[in-house]
Write a structure and sequence with these properties.
The chain is α/β, with parallel strands linked by helices and about 230 residues long. The chain is built from 8 helices and 11 strands. It has 2 domains: about 5-35 and about 150-225, Rossmann fold (3-Layer(aba) Sandwich); about 40-145, Rossmann fold (3-Layer(aba) Sandwich), CATH 3.40.50.10090. The strands form 2 sheets. The chain has a 6-stranded mixed beta sheet with strand order 3-8-7-4-5-6. Helix 6 (about 165-180) packs parallel to helix 7 (about 195-200). The relative contact order is 0.19. Its EC number is 4.2.1.75. It holds the Pfam family HEM4. It comes from Alteripontixanthobacter maritimus.
């Protein structure tokens, strides 16, 4: 099949390069530039005893800094394979790996009494927590938004398919599209999880959600939209 529409990715590095590499293996050309810069933030270890770490992004381990060492005896419940791999590389034991967003990871832990430490970014998805479970959030990184590059805006005026890897990216992308007065109806979105699709809002040509939170599932949907 021939690719008839551009596919763009806006995630920060090193994720952007990884997605483009995965896309090339699947026969999809992905263009794009990061619309976020991931930065470490200063954080104080919270008081109290915890049973496990809840990790919704690999950036927790890329940017968490020396404070992570305090919790290496805690098992990690990771949102997906990439996050789990980074956790292991930093010396953590992975107890579970999600397949449908961080909420599904939390739900799968059951209704027992648990005290969880959620290491996360400053901009994060709200979770629905069982009454027997306590979750302490601690931001260890931030995603600083960047303006949409002029070249990307020019491409999207004629339509395209955009890959969205986080709710923050979805909101920022929508804001930039509206700021540049680009018609949403020309653009199809492929989201890594349901909450990301919701964050993007309405008015797009199509919004599809990957069956599992990984590039393989994401790119399979993109292929359906960009090939004839």
């Amino acid at each position: 099949m021939r690719q008839t529409q551009p596919v763009l990715c806006i995630r920060p590095e090193p994720g952007l390069t990884a997605t483009r590499r995965n896309a090339a293996k699947a026969g999809i050309e992905v263009k794009g530039q990061p619309m976020f810069a991931i930065r470490s933030v200063s954080w104080d270890p919270p008081e109290g005893r915890f049973d496990a770490i809840l990790a919704g992004s690999a950036n927790v381990f890329r940017k968490g800094g020396p404070g992570l060492a305090l919790y290496k005896d805690l098992p990690v419940h990771a949102v997906g394979q990439t996050t789990a791999e980074l956790a292991r590389q930093h010396g953590f034991t992975v107890a579970s790996i999600g397949r449908g967003g961080l909420q599904s990871v939390l739900d799968a832990l059951g209704g027992g009494v648990l005290h969880l430490l959620r290491l996360c970014g400053r901009d994060r998805v709200e979770l629905s927590v069982h009454e027997a479970v306590s979750v302490t959030d601690r931001a260890v990184y931030e995603s600083a938004p960047l303006p949409m590059p002029a070249e990307m805006g020019a491409i999207l005026r004629d339509g395209g398919v955009v890959l969205l890897h986080s709710a923050a990216a979805a909101r920022h992308f929508a804001e930039q599209i509206d700021r540049l007065r680009i018609h949403r109806g020309n653009i199809a979105l492929v989201a890594l999880a349901p909450a990301i699709a919701v964050a993007a809002g309405n008015g797009w040509r199509a919004v599809l959600v990957a069956e599992t939170p990984d590039d393989t599932a994401l790119l399979a949907l993109a292929a359906q939209l960009c090939h004839d």
